[in-house]
Amino acid sequence: MMLEKRKKALVEALSDDDRSVREAAAAALENLESMQGLDGIARVLKSGSRDQQIRAIYALEQVVSPKVFSPLVVALNAKDADVRGAALQVLGRKKNVKVLKYMVRHLKDPHPVVRVHAAEALGNFSDRRLTPFLTALLQESDEELVKSAVRSLAAIADPVAEAELLALLKDRRPAVRALAAEALGVLHLDETDDPEPSL
Question: Is the pTM of this model over 0.85?
Fold first, then answer.
């Protein structure tokens, strides 16, 4: 098999006299292992059970390759809400702005828990373009969703959210009021930054 031949040659190169060759061979072997693992994970995501799919999604978090984003974005369309939620969490932690548009859509997901995961995950991106999407959630009746949106607004720290956060200080839910107060304490004071293009 071609791959085995390549791996064998790279293993032998680990004993090369030159240090840079040894380092390059080690990196190449690590990359091959990662790619092989990625293929296996992609298969599980297509045909595995719900629990296997969720484990596969969390495994993708450990893989350092741009190729992880495609299966994660596909997982956002899974029928199972827990699979979509897990994909949102991992995408949030990986912070690739190219997938933001796919994540934002899930703020309107039919399942409440997925909306909460989406709102929470977006806070990992320090991207002020997300502010209007998150402030729109502050009127929702779902307390967990509102709290996730407030936490993400605090992480983004966009002063544009100030009016909506001030209004939340009068919310009937103490946990929401407390989070709003914390968020108001971390918003940037300057509004002179150039606005970023819209999503």
Answer: no
